[in-house]
Amino acid sequence: xxxxxxxxxxxxxxxxxxxxxxxxxxxxxxxxxxxxxxxxxxxxxxxxxxxxxxxxxxxxxxxxxxxxxxxxxxxxxxxxxxxxxxxxxxxxxxxxxxxxxxxxxxxxxxxxxxxxxxxxxxxxxxxxxxxxxxxxxxxxxxxxxxxxxxxxxxxxxxxxxxxxxxxxxx
Length: 170
What we know:
The protein is of the alpha+beta class and about 170 residues long. Helix content is about 20%, strand content about 20%. The chain is elongated.
Protein backbone atom coordinates (compact mmCIF):
# COMPACT_ATOMS: atom_id res chain seq x y z
CA UNK A 1 0.00 0.00 0.00
CA UNK A 2 1.47 3.36 -1.05
CA UNK A 3 1.07 5.94 1.73
CA UNK A 4 1.40 9.25 -0.06
CA UNK A 5 -1.22 10.84 2.16
CA UNK A 6 -1.59 10.24 5.87
CA UNK A 7 -4.05 7.45 6.48
CA UNK A 8 -5.17 7.89 10.08
CA UNK A 9 -7.30 4.74 9.87
CA UNK A 10 -4.24 2.51 9.51
CA UNK A 11 -4.56 -0.17 12.20
CA UNK A 12 -1.07 -1.63 11.66
CA UNK A 13 0.37 0.60 14.41
CA UNK A 14 -1.12 0.42 17.91
CA UNK A 15 -1.00 4.20 18.38
CA UNK A 16 -3.25 4.79 15.36
CA UNK A 17 -6.67 4.23 16.88
CA UNK A 18 -8.84 7.24 16.07
CA UNK A 19 -9.88 8.24 12.54
CA UNK A 20 -9.58 11.99 13.05
CA UNK A 21 -6.80 13.79 14.87
CA UNK A 22 -6.60 17.26 16.35
CA UNK A 23 -3.74 19.19 14.65
CA UNK A 24 -1.87 22.18 16.01
CA UNK A 25 0.49 24.41 14.02
CA UNK A 26 3.33 25.80 16.15
CA UNK A 27 5.38 28.94 15.51
CA UNK A 28 8.47 26.97 14.38
CA UNK A 29 6.38 25.80 11.41
CA UNK A 30 5.82 22.18 12.43
CA UNK A 31 2.49 20.41 12.83
CA UNK A 32 1.65 18.60 16.06
CA UNK A 33 -0.92 15.81 16.05
CA UNK A 34 -2.86 14.47 19.03
CA UNK A 35 -1.74 10.83 19.44
CA UNK A 36 -1.71 10.03 23.18
CA UNK A 37 -1.01 6.32 22.71
CA UNK A 38 2.21 6.92 20.76
CA UNK A 39 5.21 6.05 23.03
CA UNK A 40 6.93 9.44 22.60
CA UNK A 41 3.81 11.58 23.10
CA UNK A 42 4.47 14.63 25.28
CA UNK A 43 2.29 15.26 28.34
CA UNK A 44 2.39 18.08 30.86
CA UNK A 45 2.38 17.60 34.65
CA UNK A 46 -1.41 17.48 34.83
CA UNK A 47 -1.56 14.67 32.25
CA UNK A 48 -2.88 16.84 29.42
CA UNK A 49 -1.36 16.80 25.98
CA UNK A 50 -0.38 13.68 24.09
CA UNK A 51 0.93 15.50 21.03
CA UNK A 52 3.56 14.24 18.57
CA UNK A 53 5.26 15.92 15.62
CA UNK A 54 3.28 14.84 12.57
CA UNK A 55 6.36 14.14 10.43
CA UNK A 56 7.73 11.75 13.09
CA UNK A 57 4.37 9.99 13.36
CA UNK A 58 4.14 9.60 9.57
CA UNK A 59 7.65 8.09 9.43
CA UNK A 60 6.91 5.78 12.39
CA UNK A 61 3.71 4.65 10.69
CA UNK A 62 5.65 4.04 7.46
CA UNK A 63 8.31 1.97 9.26
CA UNK A 64 5.79 0.22 11.49
CA UNK A 65 7.66 1.06 14.70
CA UNK A 66 8.21 4.05 16.98
CA UNK A 67 11.26 6.19 16.27
CA UNK A 68 14.19 6.41 18.67
CA UNK A 69 15.45 9.73 20.04
CA UNK A 70 18.54 9.73 17.81
CA UNK A 71 16.58 9.26 14.57
CA UNK A 72 15.79 12.54 12.80
CA UNK A 73 13.13 12.99 10.13
CA UNK A 74 14.18 15.58 7.55
CA UNK A 75 11.82 17.46 5.20
CA UNK A 76 13.46 17.23 1.76
CA UNK A 77 11.76 20.28 0.23
CA UNK A 78 12.14 22.36 3.42
CA UNK A 79 8.37 22.78 3.94
CA UNK A 80 7.73 21.71 7.53
CA UNK A 81 4.01 21.27 6.89
CA UNK A 82 4.49 18.94 3.91
CA UNK A 83 4.45 15.60 5.71
CA UNK A 84 4.04 13.25 2.75
CA UNK A 85 6.30 10.21 3.02
CA UNK A 86 7.97 11.17 -0.31
CA UNK A 87 9.10 14.43 1.31
CA UNK A 88 10.55 12.78 4.42
CA UNK A 89 13.87 11.02 4.92
CA UNK A 90 15.40 9.43 7.99
CA UNK A 91 18.83 10.72 9.07
CA UNK A 92 21.16 10.27 11.99
CA UNK A 93 22.06 13.21 14.21
CA UNK A 94 25.44 13.97 12.59
CA UNK A 95 24.06 13.55 9.05
CA UNK A 96 21.19 15.93 9.85
CA UNK A 97 23.52 18.57 11.30
CA UNK A 98 25.91 18.25 8.35
CA UNK A 99 23.05 18.67 5.89
CA UNK A 100 21.79 21.86 7.53
CA UNK A 101 25.30 23.28 8.04
CA UNK A 102 26.07 22.80 4.34
CA UNK A 103 23.13 25.07 3.47
CA UNK A 104 24.27 27.90 5.78
CA UNK A 105 26.20 30.90 4.51
CA UNK A 106 29.59 31.80 6.00
CA UNK A 107 27.97 34.80 7.75
CA UNK A 108 25.40 32.52 9.41
CA UNK A 109 28.13 30.11 10.50
CA UNK A 110 30.27 32.89 12.00
CA UNK A 111 27.21 34.33 13.79
CA UNK A 112 26.49 30.90 15.25
CA UNK A 113 30.12 30.53 16.40
CA UNK A 114 30.05 34.00 17.98
CA UNK A 115 26.85 33.13 19.82
CA UNK A 116 28.35 29.88 21.12
CA UNK A 117 31.45 31.69 22.42
CA UNK A 118 29.29 34.26 24.23
CA UNK A 119 27.17 31.48 25.72
CA UNK A 120 30.28 29.69 27.02
CA UNK A 121 31.51 32.89 28.70
CA UNK A 122 28.17 33.30 30.49
CA UNK A 123 28.21 29.66 31.64
CA UNK A 124 31.76 29.85 32.99
CA UNK A 125 31.64 28.93 36.69
CA UNK A 126 33.92 30.25 39.39
CA UNK A 127 37.00 28.16 40.12
CA UNK A 128 37.13 29.09 43.81
CA UNK A 129 38.94 26.52 45.97
CA UNK A 130 37.66 25.58 49.44
CA UNK A 131 38.85 23.14 52.09
CA UNK A 132 37.14 19.76 52.27
CA UNK A 133 34.56 19.80 55.07
CA UNK A 134 35.71 16.47 56.48
CA UNK A 135 38.94 17.98 57.79
CA UNK A 136 41.39 16.09 55.56
CA UNK A 137 43.02 19.33 54.43
CA UNK A 138 42.45 18.85 50.67
CA UNK A 139 41.38 21.83 48.61
CA UNK A 140 38.55 21.28 46.12
CA UNK A 141 36.66 23.44 43.65
CA UNK A 142 33.53 24.72 45.33
CA UNK A 143 31.32 23.75 42.38
CA UNK A 144 31.05 20.57 40.37
CA UNK A 145 30.64 20.42 36.57
CA UNK A 146 26.91 21.11 36.85
CA UNK A 147 27.29 24.15 39.09
CA UNK A 148 26.23 22.45 42.33
CA UNK A 149 28.04 23.43 45.54
CA UNK A 150 30.44 20.82 46.94
CA UNK A 151 31.75 20.53 50.47
CA UNK A 152 33.58 17.20 50.43
CA UNK A 153 36.07 15.39 48.23
CA UNK A 154 34.37 12.52 46.45
CA UNK A 155 34.23 9.54 48.82
CA UNK A 156 34.67 11.65 51.96
CA UNK A 157 31.76 12.08 54.31
CA UNK A 158 31.15 13.99 57.50
CA UNK A 159 28.78 11.54 59.16
CA UNK A 160 30.50 8.86 61.19
CA UNK A 161 33.98 9.53 59.73
CA UNK A 162 34.10 6.00 58.26
CA UNK A 163 37.04 6.63 55.94
CA UNK A 164 40.67 6.21 56.94
CA UNK A 165 43.62 8.52 56.38
CA UNK A 166 47.10 7.07 56.60
CA UNK A 167 45.83 3.85 58.19
CA UNK A 168 44.15 5.62 61.11
CA UNK A 169 40.39 5.93 61.41
CA UNK A 170 39.33 9.55 61.51
